[in-house]
Structure formats: structure tokens, C-alpha cells
Design a protein that fits this description.
Blueprint: H1 2-19, H2 32-37, E1 41-42, E2 51-57, H3 64-74, E3 79-83, H4 85-88, H5 92-100, E4 104-107, H6 121-136, E5 142-143, H7 152-160, E6 164-166, H8 182-190, E7 197-202, H9 211-224, E8 228-229, H10 232-236
Parallel strand pairs: 1-6, 2-3, 2-7, 2-8, 3-4, 5-6
Helix pairs in contact: 3-9, 8-9
Length: about 250
């Protein structure tokens, strides 16, 4: 009788679990909102101020970067350059010029490799950091993964190394690296501009660039609309997000 009673009791318990499962907290969906609300990744900084952050990836380039710097200076615009270590090693003087003219330097890895799980993320970040510091005496605090591809491990490593991960406004990806045409680049920016946007450009493009010609239209137009061009670090001072404490 004891055995039968135990068997029946176990069966009843299993049925109870099936019919009335134990309530557990659902795991948070780790999408943009999750990382944005935690202050771990930045796409843009909504604000009432008419400010916008121009960013340039993959440089420096021996010709394109200099032309872009000339235009930024002409329109009193500050920008953030997400530089690649192996380009920095080749063109250190352009890095010095970027700093001298009040622009911000940020880390974009050493080889521009997409950071998969098997890649040494720390090495990619630190090699570039050492170069930047050796050339300019400045340390970076912002990091952008190539292709905007990230995962929890990458974010954790970036935080350990003292970096904030910065991407770009989804509506402000100019795709200038594809050379889609000057009009497409300019319309992408000018038709979608919002306060606190982060705009993605590239100062290093294989072959000819259309970014310089596009900037000749974008910079004066946005300035006429009353926009001020700021670095990412300045833009972040307008953020209302309080990072989650751990």
C-alpha cells in the first residue's frame, strides 16, 4: 500500500506542475532598449538642444581625413573620429591634427576585425589605445565595434577597459562607404535630422570618396538650421539615462 501511495502522490505532483507551473521571472529581452536603458550602448541622445554629433570611422586616411578636417574647421564643427590602429600607425600626423583642432578620438579596434567570440577583443582595443596615447598623450573613453556588431562579452570587456560603446542613430547611417551618390548621402542626413543624433560617416574609404562633397552641402545647411556640431562626449552630457547599478 505504501508503494502505491507514493507512486500516486508523485503522479499527482507531476500533474500539478503541468497544470499549474511555478511562476518564474521571464528573462529580459536583450535588445536595443535593454542596453540603452542600462546605459551600456548609445545610439543617440534625445534632447531639446539643437546639437548633433558627426562621427567618422576607419581612418585616418592620408587624403580624405585632411579634406574633412578642412571642412569641419570652416564651419566650426567638432567631430569624433573612431580610428583604426593600423591606420593610426601609418598616419600619426593626422591624429595629432585632429586633437590640435579640438576633435575627439575614439577606439575602433586595431585591424577593423569583426569581433567574434574567438577574437582577442582586449588585444584589439589595447593595441589601438597604446598607439593613440603614444602619439597624442590622450586616452580614449569611447569604443565602436566594427559593423556595429556587439554582444554581452564585448560590452563587458569594453567596460572593463574603461570604455563606453557608442553606435549611431539608425536613421543616420549614411552608407557612404558604398559610394551611393552625394545626393543620397546628403538626403539621408538632412531629411532625417533630429536633435541628439549621432551620424555615421567614414573618412577612410577604399577608392574615391563622396563624403567630402556631401559634407560641403550638409555642414552649411545644418548650421543654417541652427544646429551645433559636438563631440560624442559633449553629447553624452545631455543624456538622461542613469546606468543600472550592479
Amino acid at each position: 500500500m505504501g508503494f502505491r501511495w507514493t507512486k500516486l502522490t508523485l503522479t499527482a505532483s507531476v500533474l500539478s506542475l503541468l497544470l499549474y507551473p511555478i511562476e518564474t521571472a521571464a528573462a529580459p529581452k536583450k535588445d536595443r532598449a535593454y542596453y540603452e536603458n542600462r546605459g551600456e550602448v548609445v545610439w543617440e541622445v534625445p534632447t531639446e538642444e539643437k546639437i548633433i554629433a558627426l562621427t567618422f570611422d576607419d581612418g585616418p586616411h592620408p587624403e580624405h581625413t585632411a579634406l574633412i578636417l578642412d571642412l569641419l574647421k570652416q564651419y566650426d564643427a567638432k567631430a569624433t573620429f573612431f580610428v583604426v590602429g593600423n591606420k593610426v600607425a601609418r598616419f600619426p600626423e593626422l591624429l595629432k591634427r585632429e586633437v590640435a583642432e579640438g576633435h575627439e578620438l575614439a577606439n575602433h579596434t586595431y585591424t577593423h576585425a569583426y569581433l567574434s567570440r574567438n577574437l582577442n577583443i582586449k588585444k584589439e582595443i589595447n593595441q589601438t589605445e597604446e598607439l593613440i596615447y603614444g602619439i597624442t598623450g590622450q586616452k580614449c573613453h569611447l569604443f565602436r565595434p566594427p559593423g556595429g556588431i556587439f554582444n554581452e562579452r564585448l560590452i563587458a570587456v569594453a567596460k572593463e577597459e574603461g570604455y563606453k560603446v557608442v553606435l549611431w542613430s539608425w536613421h543616420q547611417d549614411t552608407k557612404d562607404w558604398r559610394t551611393p551618390g552625394v545626393s543620397k548621402i546628403t538626403s539621408r542626413v538632412l531629411n532625417h535630422t533630429k536633435n541628439g543624433d549621432i551620424v555615421l560617416f567614414h573618412d577612410y574609404i577604399e577608392g574615391r570618396t563622396q563624403t567630402v562633397e556631401a559634407l560641403k552641402i550638409i555642414l552649411p545647411e545644418l548650421k543654417q538650421r541652427g544646429y551645433r556640431f559636438v563631440t560624442i562626449s559633449e553629447l553624452l552630457t545631455y543624456s538622461k539615462v542613469n546606468p543600472v547599478k550592479k
